[in-house]
Amino acid sequence: PRRRRLTVNDYVEGVLSRNRTIIAQTITLVESNNPVHMETGQQVLKQLLPYTGNSIRVGITGVPGAGKSTLIEALGTMLCEQGKRVAVLAVDPSSTITKGSILGDKTRMETLSRHPNAFIRPSASGGTLGGVNRKSRETMLICEAAGFDVILVETVGVGQSEVTVRSMVDFFLLVMLTGGGDELQGIKKGVMELVDAIFVNKADGKNKQIALGAKAEFNRILHFLQPITEGWTPKAYTCSALTGEGIAEMWQVIQAFTGKTQRSGVFDTRRRKQTIDWMYTMVEDYLRTSFFNHPEVSSIIPVIEKAVGNGEVSATMAAKQLLKIFEDQ
Amino acid sequence: PRRRRLTVNDYVEGVLSRNRTIIAQTITLVESNNPVHMETGQQVLKQLLPYTGNSIRVGITGVPGAGKSTLIEALGTMLCEQGKRVAVLAVDPSSTITKGSILGDKTRMETLSRHPNAFIRPSASGGTLGGVNRKSRETMLICEAAGFDVILVETVGVGQSEVTVRSMVDFFLLVMLTGGGDELQGIKKGVMELVDAIFVNKADGKNKQIALGAKAEFNRILHFLQPITEGWTPKAYTCSALTGEGIAEMWQVIQAFTGKTQRSGVFDTRRRKQTIDWMYTMVEDYLRTSFFNHPEVSSIIPVIEKAVGNGEVSATMAAKQLLKIFEDQ
After folding, report:
1. Which of B221, B280, B319 sits opposite A279 (nearest CB)?
2. What's the rounded Cα separation, in Å, for the pair A46 and A40?
3. DSSP string, B98-124
4. ipTM score of complex
């Protein structure tokens, strides 16, 4: 018999009763670029909203090869064994281009993916209003409504992805490697200013001493940066996904952070601000897209850019001309 | 007899013939928020554009009290005595609020302001399309058409002003003080990543040793940051506006920078990009302002923000609702 199409209620009840198949289908629904699916997705989300917000949202970034996946697997497995329910999501803006997910690959987290308390969701690709950003945020909300206690959001330093993830999590963690000499090689400008903690990974065997040196160096740099979270001083730590050393400490740091910021009110204030900022981001993206997709605007842009770049037309004149074309639609 | 109103040609010829009174009047014209003046201003600017672009544009920032004005006076006077023509502008977003200019005050640069080769213009206040930002850029263009060889743009670290100034100059310089212990106190997040050089000011008398220490510290930090200008490594230096030590070196650094970046093409590429980016900034500002000034949008925003912040409405739903209101105008 042909499978009955799920109603808004089916989705909502499925998520709330923690039905893994329906959780996955609901995520697929909000990820869809089909306007009908999007509409249904929003109706589902509306009903789930009262059940969201009860997880700890942790963002994890670091250069490729830093060992983010093995670290997430180690942390996630430890938490699952403590009885916590853990969801792993990925924000990967590059997947729109590569036509596939390079993150959140289940096969890279074999132990964790088999644990009944874990839920791993590879990254979505782009699309309409809000794109990857919207989909990751709404997936996070669905996971919260499904009772996950900890959401781990993995990202790789592509484009603005660290800023995006920072804007949707409570705690943001940078995974670093001890490099050959220059420990900071590969860190993108400004990323260290976004983090609540740095973990130097692969601090095991003969790498341990070098890792401790890198940790000290990072602490010196962090000292000069303005902390991103009011009332919390970011510090550097060492860990090893291989030996498991430092993984329990990582969770202790996150708990100390949430305890402190929840008591001070910083935690809730940030969450409210994140949601409101996100609404305006979507509005501005939409306005910008409408402008650049306007047929006459987009066809004249190469001409205008050339004239402005050559100094034949002033930037103000050019802006006025473009806006006039846009508004005479 | 009543003074005849200047025509577009009067302004253009006055600027090109370096008539100081008309230069000042032309700046007042482009600074005006009156639509008729703005229109005339743009016509004048259009004719001046072919004569612009021949100066070196230097941005200077630093916390209040770092001695920016005395340093500008020292550098500007030295350049004027070498026969160069120097214009000093100020970008001060706070002047909109304080209803007055806190920067570029002629009385603070007495020697320089009396020099025939110098031209000092206090900062403009806000207004329509582009505001302070537009006015400063267009004032810079007028000064270039009037044959000034060096434009010094002073700013204080208010809001986004460093980013604004960085986006309109070739070389960006941070003036620092040696503080009591923590040399970095007061530096805003991310500012050190925008600069091409740091000058530790007041390196005189018993302060000299401390200044040398601060310089070494800044060099260590700069080493970890990604340089803002391709092919140029920012470094820290010491100087004293009081004794004049380091002022000649400051100019040598700027000349080494322009020589190197002009040969590599980075100089011209950045200027073109700055102008095009600036055009799009005006377009986006306009779109954003149209949205937020839309009467029904602005009246519903407090309600929507509250509902989104409380988790009663999803950010996506709220964004859609706001955009619907905006587009049904």
Report:
1. B319
2. 10
3. HTS--SS-GGGSHHHHHSTTEEE-PPP
4. 0.82
